[in-house]
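batch_manifest entry 22 of 60
target: Carboxy-S-adenosyl-L-methionine synthase
source organism: Sulfurimonas crateris
requested by: lab member K.T.
priority: normal
notes from requester: please return tokens only, no post-processing; we will run our own comparison against the previous entry in this batch. if the run fails, retry once and flag.
--- input ---
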Amino acid sequence: MNDKVFTKPIKKQFEFDEEVAAVFDDMLQRSVPFYKESQKITEFFALKQLEDGGVAYDLGCSTATLLINISRKLKKSATLIGLDNSEAMLEQARKKCEAFRADIELANADILEYEYKEADLFISNYTLQFIRPLIREELVKKISASLKKEGIFIFSEKVISHHPKLNKDLIECYYDFKKEQGYSEYEIMQKREALENVLVPYSEDENIKMAKNCGFSHCEVVFRWANFATFIAIK
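--- output ---
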């Protein structure tokens, strides 16, 4: 289904409700530059990391597309767990898992409060940016503490530049991308207003510093397009 969420005047801040869940896969493809490519990189490292008996979490799994793709290629007996606090997203995820016969555990959960098993891998796709900065670091600490030694955390985030002109140009570059995907100026401005104070991005350096402050020995970017980046942090 095509994303038409912001063709009408917004009445509330952005949330992952039924309307968004119904068009979310289309929204991702048209709103996140090179989304498929960043997901392929995530899949590659996830599949290399998981061994028999391994455990992987996808935090903010939305409609479970990534976990389904990993499940279809996984040749080991590992446990894949998707967590999300949007029941509308999880309803879409359950339907897709059933259609693809994917063996994935899905749970409606608060990722800040959830009791994690010891894991080999955590994934977070554009999820941290929706968590208030004051508690974002606490979650990353919890992720690090739940990982085995040399476990990895793969996370993708929208990023900012602290250079004013460059940051402005990065935003303009991104808006040009969205226009090429068929979004109107009106839709772009509507979504930007809806996300105001809901999505709070860090810079590339701030994300790396956060990971290292939270118990990871190494963190670097493995994919970036303008103001979108995929990071890998190694415990």
